[in-house]
């Protein structure tokens, strides 16, 4: 089965907490803080791999969590970092934010990596908070949470050449002759239910990738038949090879077929008009093929569209077509663009120091990732820890912001769900 869209949830691991510990060794009568830092949380990393062809692996598993960092240890030992999770995706995968639908990153190079959900930072142990005036800090710092998000993986094939046309015109047969690809071939419509890729070798260090796009029908751009699902794979191609049944064996006019398919392409996206096209007049070996080929050439070659007569059965004309495509590709710059996709601006992520101070329904509220971590790290029975908490509120401007909101002495302040009384 060909899976080209997948929705998954990714979450970086939480950073480990710093630890409160004391030095209690022989011949060390003064002791002192000895707690180590927590380990970093594991990240979720996407990696483009040309060995992966579909998004099938994401069909059944949709939740991915990075490993949590270990808490710090005594003797200033760091906790172990959480394990990163590397998710391999096909080359040509667009990664989108599910909520906005905007593209986060386009993974179109083999081996390309992107950290989609970063793991949290490890918290500091109490040994980190020792100063000349605070020689025995009885507190440590909590690790931060990892990033989390819902994303959509959408595959758009990377191919130099796209074979397009109505069903049963011979696209799959041409692909099998050109390359080592072995698509399913039969004499009925919609034999091809998924795009097939093949590599065409011209000579040493000379090759191109060709995709057999499933047969399009009228109304494809509106979702009829298989068209809507696979039109997007045409976007990435550099050249469109339009395969026509020159024999008219199914009672269709090949010239009308060309215009009908192009209408579907341009209805889907007008920018496809800019892609170079060549025509393959297939089935020239069948009666009336030669006569129709003359009409096809007369119609399209004045428009600058090269017509290649071909018999996929006898292989006549195959070499001319192969080298014709190669020569055309040499004139086109490689740019696997994606049409009409809106890219997400570099996200302004909530920083570790983010603090929100607001008044809502006559309640004073303080929240944010920094405050959440600070309150989680505070030992309210420890004088040094409480003083550290209060000093940070002042340094971060929380007290000043509350005063700007006209708070009075003794009024309640809700900090991450906990209620405190305000005193300067």
TrEMBL record:
Gene name linked to the record: obgE
Annotated keywords: Cytoplasm, GTP-binding, Hydrolase, Magnesium, Metal-binding, Nucleotide-binding
Domain OBG-type G: from-to ranges: 159-330
Pfam families assigned to the protein according to its UniProt record, in alphabetical order: DUF1967, GTP1_OBG, MMR_HSR1
Residues bound to GTP: 165-172, 190-194, 212-215, 282-285, 311-313
Enzyme's top EC category: hydrolase
Organism of origin: Paratissierella segnis
Function noted in UniProt: An essential GTPase which binds GTP, GDP and possibly (p)ppGpp with moderate affinity, with high nucleotide exchange rates and a fairly low GTP hydrolysis rate. Plays a role in control of the cell cycle, stress response, ribosome biogenesis and in those bacteria that undergo differentiation, in morphogenesis control.
Record's protein name: GTPase Obg
């Amino acid at each position: 089965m060909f899976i080209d869209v997948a929705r998954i949830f990714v979450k970086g691991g939480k950073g480990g907490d710093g630890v409160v510990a004391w030095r209690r060794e022989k011949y060390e009568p003064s002791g002192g803080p000895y707690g180590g830092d927590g380990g970093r949380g594991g990240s979720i990393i996407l990696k483009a791999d040309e060995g992966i062809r579909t998004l099938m692996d994401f069909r059944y598993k949709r939740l991915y969590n990075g490993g949590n960092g270990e808490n710090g240890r005594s003797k200033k030992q760091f906790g172990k970092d959480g394990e990163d999770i590397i998710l391999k995706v096909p080359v040509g995968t667009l990664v989108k934010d599910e909520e906005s639908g905007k593209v986060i990153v386009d993974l179109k190079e083999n081996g390309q990596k992107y950290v989609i959900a970063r793991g949290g930072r490890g918290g500091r142990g109490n040994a980190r908070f020792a100063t000349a005036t605070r020689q025995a800090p009885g507190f440590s710092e909590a690790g931060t949470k990892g990033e989390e998000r819902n994303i959509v993986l959408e595959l758009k094939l990377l191919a130099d050449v796209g074979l397009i046309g109505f069903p049963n015109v011979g696209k799959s047969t041409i692909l099998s002759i050109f390359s080592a690809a072995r698509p399913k071939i039969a004499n009925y419509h919609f034999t091809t239910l998924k795009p097939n890729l093949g590599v065409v070798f011209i000579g040493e260090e000379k090759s191109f990738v060709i995709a057999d796009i499933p047969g399009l029908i009228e109304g494809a751009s509106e979702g009829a038949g298989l068209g809507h699902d696979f039109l997007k794979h045409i976007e990435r191609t550099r050249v469109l090879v339009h395969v026509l049944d020159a024999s008219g064996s199914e009672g269709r006019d090949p010239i009308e077929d060309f215009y009908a398919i192009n209408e579907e392409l341009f209805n889907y996206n007008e920018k496809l008009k800019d892609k170079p096209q060549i025509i393959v007049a297939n089935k020239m070996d069948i009666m009336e093929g030669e006569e129709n080929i003359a009409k096809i050439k007369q119609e399209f070659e004045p428009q600058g569209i090269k017509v290649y007569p071909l018999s996929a059965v006898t292989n006549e004309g195959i070499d001319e077509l192969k080298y014709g495509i190669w020569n055309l590709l040499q004139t086109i710059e490689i740019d696997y663009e994606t049409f009409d996709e809106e890219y997400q601006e570099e996200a302004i992520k909530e920083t570790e120091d983010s603090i929100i101070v607001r008044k809502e329904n006559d309640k004073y509220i303080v929240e944010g990732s920094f405050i959440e971590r600070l309150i989680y790290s505070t030992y309210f029975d420890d004088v040094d820890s409480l003083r550290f908490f209060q000093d940070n509120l002042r340094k971060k401007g929380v007290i000043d912001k509350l005063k700007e909101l006209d708070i009075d002495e003794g009024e309640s302040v809700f900090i991450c769900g906990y209620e405190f009384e305000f005193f300067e």
